[in-house]
């Protein structure tokens, strides 16, 4: 994972865990890597990882069991919530950027349709 300078690292860690859940790389109930291991593996400050894990606990994404580790919470509705939240962020950012470069709503929608056709023709989904 490569970190982006425009966003705090702890938020990028949280987003990566969410993406791993959506992609099925992590599943409900799975134990995730310890904070210390994560910090060493990603070469980041342990306090940054600790903050990410603490935030994920507040979000009910993970739970830490003393002496056992940190686990993905058992909330079946969580995956759909995460997908919707991430899609909203992406769409909000995209639409704001399109407006900032002068695209009207209609022109943006037409551009999306054109790209969707192009992507489907290329076989990328």
Automatic annotation (TrEMBL):
Q: Which SUPFAM superfamilies match?
A: Winged helix' DNA-binding domain
Source domain of life: Bacteria
Cite the entry's keywords alphabetically. Answer: DNA-binding, Transcription, Transcription regulation
Q: Does the keyword Metal-binding apply?
A: no
Q: What is this protein called?
A: GntR family transcriptional regulator
- Chain ranges of the HTH gntR-type domain: 7-75
Coiled-coil regions in this chain?
Answer: none
GO MF entry, a single one: DNA binding
What InterPro entries has UniProt attached to this entry?
A: Tscrpt_reg_HTH_GntR (IPR000524), WH-like_DNA-bd_sf (IPR036388), WH_DNA-bd_sf (IPR036390)
Q: CDD domains from the xrefs?
A: WHTH_GntR (cd07377)
